[in-house]
Design goal:
globular, 81% helix, mainly alpha
Length: 241
Amino acid sequence: MSNLFMSSALISKMLPTDYVGFTFFVGCMAMMAASAFFFLSLSQFDKKWRTSVLVSGLITFIAAVHYFYMKEYWAEIGESPTFFRYVDWVLTVPLMCLEFYLILKVAGAKQSLLWKMIFYSVVMLVTGYVGEVVAPESAAFWGFVSGVAYFAIVYEIWLGEASKLAKAAGGNVLAAHKILCWFVLVGWSIYPLGYMMGTTGWYNGIIPAGNIDVVYNIADAINKIGFGLVIYTLAVNSQKD
């Protein structure tokens, strides 16, 4: 009960102009609702697609929990909850890479593809955290390494092994793969841009302090819920065939 009262107190302190706090709250509720939707829909799918939809629910559920804590952190301290955000990403981004592997298994995707993409994602996030929090004086170097890992993922899904497997699968799998590729190329691009604007010497004066959290929150909700809806649609359409 004490936690409930504390949460209510924090919400009551939120100003009408606190767009960061508002997007944290809406992001938390949206991703929790998406989790409920994915989990409750599991029974309608056969085993072939159930795991993919389950992972979609886990992605949004993990994000919802972190957004709850990020909302409280922002309300109480008034600072960007960078640590919680990176913990969220280091759990959910590899799961999003897992989704590529799961939908491409029908075309013979091997676990080596999965581990390669997970490795790229972990390198991208760990080096990003180091550059933004641990060693901000070397933000340019760590940001470069993080960017290389990001573009390695982009290459893998657009031109590499994942792309070839998607073409071999064809049909609904290829269509879903292309949409997920656009999510990574366009949706994920906000994260390296936010990194550049949020670290010293990377044009951090372009966006006022705090506003980058609004962009992050909106992008997170669109990317994670959108990823799940693409997987859900693929599962529905595949069962119709």
